[in-house]
Amino acid sequence: MSQIDIQYRKSEQREFCLIETQGSLETDKPGGLRGQQRFAAIERQPDGKVIMKIGVHRVVGSVVPLKKPLAVMVKEGQAEDSSSDLTYKIQAIIKEKFIFKLRPVVDLQQEILKLPTV
Amino acid sequence: MDSQNGSNLRQALLTSSLGAMIRGPAADPADTAAGSGAQGALNLLGSRAAPTPHDLLAVAQAQTFPLALDDDQDTLTLLPNALSDSDLEADDDAEDDSYLASEFLNAQAMDAHPEHAEYPEKTSQFSIFADACVVMADGDEEEGGGGGGEPRLVARDAAAQAYEHRLDAEQQGREVANIIKRREVAAAAEHEGLLARHKLAVVTPQERFAAYKAAMARPAAAEEEDSVAVQAPKRQKVDEGGMAARPAAPERPRDTRLAARFAGRYALPPETGEYVAARTAAGTTLFFPLRAPPEPSASASLPSALGRMSMAQANRVVGEIEQEIATRESLLDHAHDSLAKLTLQPADTRLWAEKYRARAYVDLVSSERTNRAVMEWLNAWDACVFRRGAGADTQDRWKRPLRRILLLSGPPGLGKTTLAHVAARQKGYDVVEINASDERTAAKVRDRVLGVTQTQGVAMRGRPQLLVIDEIDGASGAVSAQGDFVSMLVKLATATSDAGEGEGQGQAKDGRPKGRKKPQAQLLRPIICICNNVYAPVLRPLRQIAQCYHVQGPTAARLAQRLQDVCALEQLPCDPWVLADLARSTECDVRASLNALQLMANRPAPAAGATAAAAAAAAASALGTAGVGGKDVQRSLFALWAQIFTRADAPGQPRQQTAAEYARALVAAVRVSGEHERLLQGCWENYLLMDFRDLTHTRVSDLCTQWLCFADLMDAAGRRNPQQAHGLHSYLEYPLLAVHLTCSSPLGLARGAFVYPAADYAAHQARTARVALAQSLLAGCAHVRMRSSLTASTVCSEFADLFLQVLSPAVSTANRHLLRGRELEQAERLVDVMAAWGLRLVQAKDAEGQYVYRVEPPVDRLAGFVGRKSARRVMPLRYAVRQMLAQEMERRRVRSAADRGEDQAGVGGMKDGNAAEAAKREYLGRLFADPLAAVGCPSGELPDAGAAFVTKDFFGRPVVKKQQSKTSPATSAQTMQKQQQQPKAWFHFFEGFSNAVRKPTRMSELL
């Protein structure tokens, strides 16, 4: 009977967030949207809202706690021959997700907004 | 058994000759066309050898019918203004001759053209026949030495009749002119009297009025006399004077005319007695003699009145008189006009079909069985309407019959409407008719129907009313607020029964006597609907609930008897045989026969010396030639096929019918039906089953190679060029006639072997399916060049057979580890090919519930020929082998997908086999980023911009890029790098809907 070793070290924890969008995140990069590419800025507001900014657009979303937390694990060791040294390392525990279901709006600069309308 | 062999032999012969035909018309011996001339064509029917298109073409060439074969495109073209059939028949027309001559010149010019010289036989073959059609139909008569063709006789007859009509019209005009003349004379006399009276009693207006009235009354009387005279016009010799007088009269102005008339009579003073002189407006002096006054009182005052009258007064009087005369004249003219109109109408304007419509049940000529059935249905209403007898339907509260609407159907003119009216009157109903001309929207008709069927007839002698809806199949399917007309009727007839039962229970509970206040409409009176086509789509709902009867027409003998009665009543001498012929030619249509009879009666009677037989012959020829009574009835396809395959001298055929007459009738019937294609298909699929005599099979092979190919050619030409289709259409009847001449037998379709043609449709279906299959096969092909070089037709004709061989290697074992050597290669190759063509093996259950692997798309059907199924196996058939192949394909698919994924990740790029691929991809990437740099330097070094390629403007000067002048090459390279590093990313918002699909994402992509 094989055992799977799952390791959890608090010091190694990284921060992940789960994003649900009404829409899709797209790119023209050949490989697709992968890696830690920086393309958006997500800000948490004190009132529980989150704001995702891409370019000059901004989407307001909300934070929803997950019913069951998710763990992000990385498999270590070769599992081909034997399962003895196969371990999983927990990299992060995700407990909440950001839901963006509103329509993106243009993030106008404040001074433009303050201009008197004719 | 013997006939079976015979038909096989025929089939074999046919295929061989068809093969010869397919190889090309040029291979066809041209001597057929050359050898048989117009004379040969004339002998077509007489020699019992089936005529060929070539014969007719030869005739046509002699006549230069304007149809030619376009050599470049192998198409038949109808030359402009091609003659129609009617033109063909009237070939003695001078205009047509000149036209034909010009066409002949055209054809000569075409023949002289060098390109045409290559295919002389073709040109001769297809410059189509003109009179051939007529010749073919008339062949018997021509052969029998009957002299001139019948069409000419027809034309001559028609011309003679037209001339006679013209004579009649002229004569009537002359009679009217005579009447006018007589009237004018009368008017002149009147004027005279009036004038005299005026002269005597000018002073009293009352007397003037009385005189005027008298004057007006008298011409009315004269008019009556005249009209009597006109109503019995006599044939009289035309006098030149009458003709001359009439046009001359209106040319002169009115007053000069009057003056002239008066000038003759009153120009000179009378020799005796006193007179009054007067001057007209034109300046003529007239002398009016004084006469004795009609009334004694007037005469007493006459001398004094005259004595007082001065010249001026007399002039004034004459002026007044002239004015009055003018008004009188205009009134008279008006009267003449109306009289002329009256005289042109016949005495009895009623149609005989109306006049001799059956009034009583015993007068009905329609079949006794139908009459009785209708009466029975009406009897079933007795319990409801008249409260006598027991109702048929005991369930119903009103004891109505189960089917409350009667639907009479049948061809026009058989007396359906008459039957409905007579039967209803016989039963004591008042008939209310809704005709096609009435407004028939659902709401209006509903009101009308309810008005008739619910109310007790108050107005009409207290009799109940019955509704007859005539020509109900003409009801539009237009749906209004209450649904269409027919469904309204159906609702009325059916829904009431349910409501009635419900009402019955309610009544029992409440004890209310009558359910008068309920909203549901009730149908309490019979309705008879009449239609021609009971299978009209509009009538579908009605057909299910109505009592349907098909009205059978009277037998020809009975109709002839009735026609004879009518003739006796009209005192029209008629031969019984003629009447029987008439009845037969109208197909027992009572109305049409009566109309034809009336038309015959109205024609000028034959000369007094003619015998009865001559009169009968004249009537018969009139019937036959003028198309009187001939009916444009569309016959069923089976009737036409029966006509085609039945010999003219078959036992059941009408007597005294020559082959030519039969053929002409057949052509006409085919033309009316318009279903040439379907008819020919039926002949094609069934002619071998027919019991005709052709021992050497030459006639059948001739029929197929000549006539059917000709029909195909015509049909194809018509399809290719729809503008010509109409012109070519009239030739499509003659191949059918050829089928008749070749394959007809005395039995006709009596053997019962005839089946409705389905092969064409089946072939069409199969073809559509195969083309779709070929297209789906092409669509799955991954190889672009292969795909672009093939079409659906080439796939079927060239590719499929070989491709299926490639797909069918011999793989013996189902274990892939046991495959060795050649077998392994073949199996792998098979999997490759299938992958390349997008073929899949799909597990499915067959009809017996066994698991099988099907090829998807089912290419094995592309070569599914009958009889070859067992010989050619597409793909290894064994389930296990197919399963192995399917697994292998799935494995390959997964592997290639993984390869693709690695390629996308760019990780596997450096692996051993994929180095070249990776280099290529890298190169392509650079090509997209900066085409110039990539093309200029494939090795990857970044040269100075403009070193390898110098873009030049229109004048050849090198173009200096602005940004390069601003920034150094190094920085531009940096920005390019940066752009490459930071591709764009964006958020695509899905507006309006949530597709709620969670896309699986690999963790490796995030880490």
UniProtKB/TrEMBL annotation, chain A:
Q: Which GO terms describe its molecular function?
A: DNA binding
Matches recorded under InterPro entries: Ctf8
List the keywords (alphabetical): Cell cycle, DNA replication, DNA-binding, Nucleus
Which Gene Ontology cellular component annotation is one that this UniProt entry carries?
A: Ctf18 RFC-like complex
Pfam families (alphabetical): Ctf8
Membrane-crossing residue ranges in chain numbering: none
Q: Where in the cell is it found?
A: Nucleus
> Which processes are annotated in GO (biological process)?
DNA replication; mitotic sister chromatid cohesion
Q: State the family it belongs to.
A: Belongs to the CTF8 family.
Protein's recorded name: Chromosome transmission fidelity protein 8
Origin species: Coemansia erecta
From TrEMBL, chain B:
Annotated signal sequence range: none
Location relative to the cell? Nucleus
Residue span of region Disordered: 224-253, 498-517, 960-981
BP-aspect Gene Ontology terms: DNA replication
Coiled-coil intervals, chain numbering: none
Please give the superkingdom of this protein's source.
Eukaryota
Q: Which CDD domains match?
A: AAA, HLD_clamp_RFC
Any single Gene Ontology cellular-component annotation = nucleus
Q: From the UniProt record, which GO molecular function terms apply?
A: ATP binding; ATP hydrolysis activity; DNA binding
Pfam families hit by this protein: AAA
Where would I find the AAA+ ATPase domain in this sequence?
402-573
Q: Which UniProt keywords apply?
A: ATP-binding, Cell cycle, DNA replication, DNA-binding, Nucleotide-binding, Nucleus
The family assignment reads: Belongs to the activator 1 small subunits family. CTF18 subfamily.
Q: Could you tell me what this protein is called?
A: Chromosome transmission fidelity protein 18
What species is given as this protein's source? Coemansia erecta
Q: Which gene encodes it?
A: ctf18
